[in-house]
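Researcher: Predict the fold of Bulb-type lectin domain-containing protein.
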Amino acid sequence: MGAVFSNDGNRIVSGSSDGTLKVWDATTGTQIGNPLYGHDDSVQSVAFSPDGTRIVSGSEDRTVRIWDVITGTQIGSPLHGHDDYVQSVAFSPDGTRIVSGSDDRTVRIWDVTTGTQISDPLHGHDDYDCVWVSEDRTVRVWDATTGTQIGDPLHGHDECVQSVSFSPDGTRIVSGSLDRTVRIWDATTGTQIGNPLHGHDRHIQSVAFSPDGTSIVSGSYDRTVRIWDATTGFQIGDPLHGHDHYVHSVAFSPDGTRIVSGSYDGTVRIWDATTGTQIGNPLYGHDESVQSVAFSPDGTRIVSGSYDRTVRIWDATIGTQIGDPLHGHDRYVLSVAFSPDGTRIVSGSLDSTVRIWDATTGTQIGDPLHGHDNHVRLVAFSSDGTRIVSGSSDRTVRIWDATTGTQIGDPLPGHDDYVHSVAFSPDGTRIVFRSIDSSEKIWNYTNTPNNNYFLPLISKSKPFQSLYILLLHFV
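Model: Structure tokens for Bulb-type lectin domain-containing protein follow.
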């Protein structure tokens, strides 16, 4: 159930429900070497080490394994410790630690050099439904060199963790769970920092650190957004009330001064990340649930996609809708994203099409991109804006020329079920996507590398949002 790019963008690794991992050339789309055998059950999560020499994988067989990228062989023995499915694994930004999360409700941190577990498991959460950190309800960190677990599992979750994220500097981990708490962990010692952050009355669906790592934002089924001091763990101000239904998505603006949230109540709201006050009125316009929201690269606009079949662009400063709704899709809009230069928007829909829009005029650019035979679940631009990648319920990932709208090459097949998450690496050389079949696949594409990198961090119930955050901070 996972796939990620290598940091140089040349390779993609994918994990599958058949228990294997495969490495792909991101330029040619061809498989590199033989499948990596070892797991006895579905591979739920995979990740490259920052230097690209190793791969870590987590599986429903309850183990974490480390692989040599060049030889394709397993390094050392399986990392045993979790008592249930391992749903998510990732390297720390400096490559010295591995974190794993499981349905055993613990988070564990491991020293990559010594292979010892750092401190006790991070205990705390009390609810259930699942962090793609692992279905055993734990997060575990493994030594990527020796293959040993660092300290005990991070216990505390009594239910599945819906979302986890590292702080930008990699020193802390934040987790949100169905047990209604947010918890902060020391990524070095594995100890919980302070008490659980109580406040939400229902499942927490999304958590994220601010760009500077000083704050945390969380969104919940209790219809609130909350901001937390990432140092003290105290809630900053009162809950951000306003939404009349589930909060599906939260995100900080690029400069960290604002937060945008999208909800089942059909509204988009902008919040002051310092004071916690709502900026202006709710952004009304959508007639149904808002499924996806995103800031433009310069933070001046917001794009939203909705069940009402429209895409809308908003002025992020004054909160007014810019132009008319972007009509064209015949069914729910499931995903939206800005191009890196902010001039275009791409959308994916239940109508099986991908569409490109002029972000200034709101007009559709060219014809719909046809090819998928089922719902388009997620779309993203490459970092240079020349290509678009889309993932669909037809079990394929497709790459499109963002200028001509033509499909580049054949569909990238291989999944046995719906593709729920796709993304280009910021350097545009890799594509990562995730599927319900519990596999992650990586494909290589050639492009000029840069220092950016993003990967989906996947949560069982929110495959796109949660995992995007986690892998983003680990890579």
